[in-house]
Design goal:
two-stranded parallel ribbon; about 475 residues
């Protein structure tokens, strides 16, 4: 990113007096940890880039032209900026947000100019078509985007018609934050309501990216649009764990979203989640106590569901069989919650409480299961093979000495490790055939099992390949 000026030969006498001396021309690039020390020191730091950011946003600054690759393409608002030159392939929302850098109206500026060096019209029509098929017919017709915005606003007003949003628009900061959290709680009431809200706000955002510079919206409508964007950011954070998308919000609302997400006792939960803590540390008594204090039941269930799914997914990478078992149990709980009928409304609070308690109980069981290898005297990965052997016993109704089963699990893990030392072992039939033979011989040595051995081998091989994929 750098500042460019005309050469003196091309300037008028007045302009030559105002030209930036060569020693004041700045060039800033982002640094990479692999840069040489000299280059690292030359490229400057974050504070230097912030200074350029500030200068470029000043109307009377000498910093007039910036060459960028990825910086300043989204969420960077300079209303008087009038021209953008594009020679980089861009698609979908990134393309819409990029051209939106020059569509803000400003005194003496009716519209912005996009200079296209590579042919972006096809991609732009496609991007607009993702949000509204009619908008793809003519990407220069802002009127269509404005109509779409007003249509989506009307749908959202109907959705929230019984919700009191006055505290967001008229209340103090604390009341505004509480209002955002309560609004997201309403959205999360059912799977259907969540899907509807996300889809409508997605269309609203796509159209608003294109038409936000138009003067067709009242100040109240603009505030209302930011209100819905803020709610969506909280919902996405709660359900998907993604960072809040505040690029299209004004600075005030962006900060409010950040605060709303960590308010009402949720702060510690997200700190733990963002740090990707070890699952056993994550689900400790202190964590469960924090979760239990949440006063927003739908929000609590969504957080529990997402974090437990994440932890089970990680557990499945080590112990596929048990991971699948816990995943099915969680999904059964969530399905019952999502399928509650209109008749359940009378006992809605009871259903929410039962669901939260069932998930919390499952967390405790998972925590116990993940630590169970310690009591058996085997390691975390050997436990996965032990569980396969134990499941076969239970499935076919026969008994087998536990100590012998533990030793057999260790031996199978050793056999698998020997085969897995070849990077392409799972693609080579000769190694897989030898692995199968070694496992069959080992099972025979231990007298396990009194049934067909193919069933055991199939599960052991799947677990072995699971190790290879996730290590």
């Amino acid at each position: 990113m750098g500042e460019i000026t005309k050469t003196p030969d091309h300037l008028s006498s007045k302009e030559q007096k105002e030209v930036v001396p060569i020693e004041r021309i700045k060039m800033v690039m982002t640094r990479n940890k692999d840069d040489d020390e000299d280059l690292w020191n030359l490229l400057g730091n974050k504070e230097g880039r912030k200074d350029l950011d500030f200068q470029f946003k000043q109307l009377h600054s000498n910093f007039k032209i910036a060459i960028v690759v990825d910086m300043w393409l989204t969420g960077f608002d300079v209303p008087f900026l009038d021209t953008i030159y594009i020679d980089k392939p861009l698609q979908t929302h990134n393309l819409i947000q990029t051209i939106s850098r020059v569509n803000r109206k400003y005194e003496g500026k009716d519209k912005g100019l996009v200079v296209d060096y590579i042919g972006i019209k096809k991609n732009l029509n496609h991007a607009l078509g993702m949000f509204n098929s009619s908008a793809a017919d003519d990407f220069e017709d802002i009127d269509k985007a404005i109509i779409l915005i007003k249509d989506q606003l009307d749908l959202l007003r109907q959705f929230f018609y019984q919700f009191d949003s006055s505290k967001y628009f008229e209340g103090n900061p604390v009341e505004q934050l509480q209002c955002l959290n309560k609004a997201s709680e309403l959205v999360l009431q059912t799977e259907k309501s969540e899907h509807f809200f996300v889809e409508v706000t997605k269309k609203l955002k796509g159209a608003y990216n294109l038409a936000c510079g138009a003067n067709d919206f009242t100040e109240r409508e603009i505030d209302e649009i930011h209100f819905y964007f803020a709610i969506k950011s909280i919902v996405v954070k709660l359900t998907k764990g993604e960072a809040p998308d505040t690029a299209q919000m004004n600075e005030k609302v962006s900060k409010m979203v950040e605060d709303a997400i960590i308010s009402e006792g949720v702060e510690e939960i997200f700190k733990l989640d963002d740090n990707k803590a070890n699952a056993i540390d994550l689900f400790n008594d202190k964590f469960l106590e924090k979760i239990s204090q949440l006063e927003l039941p739908n929000t609590k269930i969504k957080i529990l569901e997402r974090l437990l799914k994440q932890t089970i997914s990680d557990f499945k990478k080590v112990n596929k069989m048990k991971g699948i078992e816990f995943s099915a149990r969680l999904q059964s709980i969530i399905n019952r919650y999502n399928e509650r009928s209109e008749r359940d409304i009378l006992d809605y609070d009871g259903i929410q409480t039962d669901t939260s308690e069932q998930i919390l109980d499952l967390i405790l069981e998972l925590r116990k299961e993940m630590a169970s290898f310690e009591d058996l005297g085997i390691d975390y990965e050997e436990k996965a093979f032990y569980d396969i052997l134990d499941a076969i016993c239970r499935q076919y109704g026969f008994e087998f000495d536990q100590e012998k089963m533990l030793e057999l699990a260790r031996e199978i893990k050793h056999i698998v490790d020997d085969a897995a030392k070849y990077p392409d072992w799972s693609e080579r039939d000769d190694i897989k055939a030898q692995l199968k033979m070694d496992i069959i011989v080992k099972l025979h040595q231990f007298g396990y099992p009194p049934i067909t051995q193919d069933d055991v081998y199939k599960n052991v091989l799947e677990q072995a390949e699971n190790f290879k994929k996730n290590r």
